[in-house]
Design a protein that fits this description.
It is built from two helices and 15 strands. With 259 residues, it is mostly beta strands. The relative contact order is 0.12. Strand 2 and strand 3 form a beta hairpin.
């Protein structure tokens, strides 16, 4: 039975899933017997199924147990899905420059209310499909919580130095049940799809701009400062005046000699 609907569990063609065991009872009339059901995993993923049993003798039903809320007859098949975002602005992109925080929202279904669970995640390189490492260590995070309802969400935060990233990253998550007395954990669900866009955070690599200063010098070989056009014209004018004065002086001397 599908607990969420209270109806028989069926496939896309309406087929139900049943099982039968024939046995001979003990001399005392008490004992146990096993009934095995084979069901496609995809059909029960994210659901809680409940087993209804009927005992017949000589063609007549003599006992039945059909309680949709009986936990001992129930088996849950949790399912998780994730959606990652940048904590700073809520989008799906980070810049590979310093410390960043990625928040992964994990959606779960078919948990047992009141039980303790742990969601454990790791960042994966979208191109190499290997775990992202910072200073030689994988980037991981986890959140432990008690399920208040069968379906809900929980957040997992990854804080790390993104300076060395060059490829997009993908969040992989696993869900474990936690025994509060022993601390033992058991894997019950996972979501690891390297191509899932909802789990992917794109990485923007900052560009580096190099600025160079070039000094142009109209260098003089003897270390003198370059002359301006005005200064050049002044020197030319002085030279012309000097030449003109020398010419006049020479002309006057020759005139006196003739006289």
């Amino acid at each position: 039975m599908d607990k969420s609907t209270g109806e028989e569990l069926t496939d896309s063609e309406g087929n139900t899933y049943t099982a039968t065991t024939t046995f001979t009872s003990s001399e005392t009339g008490s004992g146990t017997v096993e009934v095995t059901f084979t069901v496609p995993g995809s059909l029960v993923s994210g659901k809680t199924v409940v087993v209804f049993e009927s005992v017949s003798f000589d063609g007549r039903e003599i006992a039945v147990h059909a309680d949709i809320n009986d936990e001992d007859q129930s088996v849950s098949y949790p399912e998780v899905g994730t959606s990652a975002r940048d904590k700073a602005d809520g989008d799906s992109q980070i810049t590979a420059d310093g410390t960043v925080t990625i928040i992964d929202t994990v959606t779960y279904t078919a948990l047992t209310p009141g039980n303790t669970y742990c969601v454990s995640g790791v960042l994966m390189d979208a191109e190499t499909e290997k775990s992202v490492k910072v200073d030689g260590e994988e980037v991981t995070a986890e959140t432990t919580f008690t399920a208040e309802e069968a379906d809900g969400t929980v957040e997992v935060e990854f804080t790390f130095d993104a300076s060395g990233l060059t490829h997009d990253v993908v969040v992989f998550e696993k869900l474990y049940t936690v025994d509060t007395e022993t601390g033992d954990e058991a894997l019950v669900a996972s979501y690891e799809d390297i191509e899932d866009e909802a789990q992917t955070i794109s990485v923007k690599v900052p560009t580096t701009t190099m600025t160079t200063t070039t000094t142009s010098t109209a260098a003089t070989k003897k270390g003198s400062s370059p002359k301006t056009g005005v200064e050049d014209r002044r020197w030319l004018l002085l030279c012309l005046m000097a030449a003109s004065g020398a010419f006049l002086l020479c002309s006057r001397k020759r005139k006196k000699e003739r006289e």
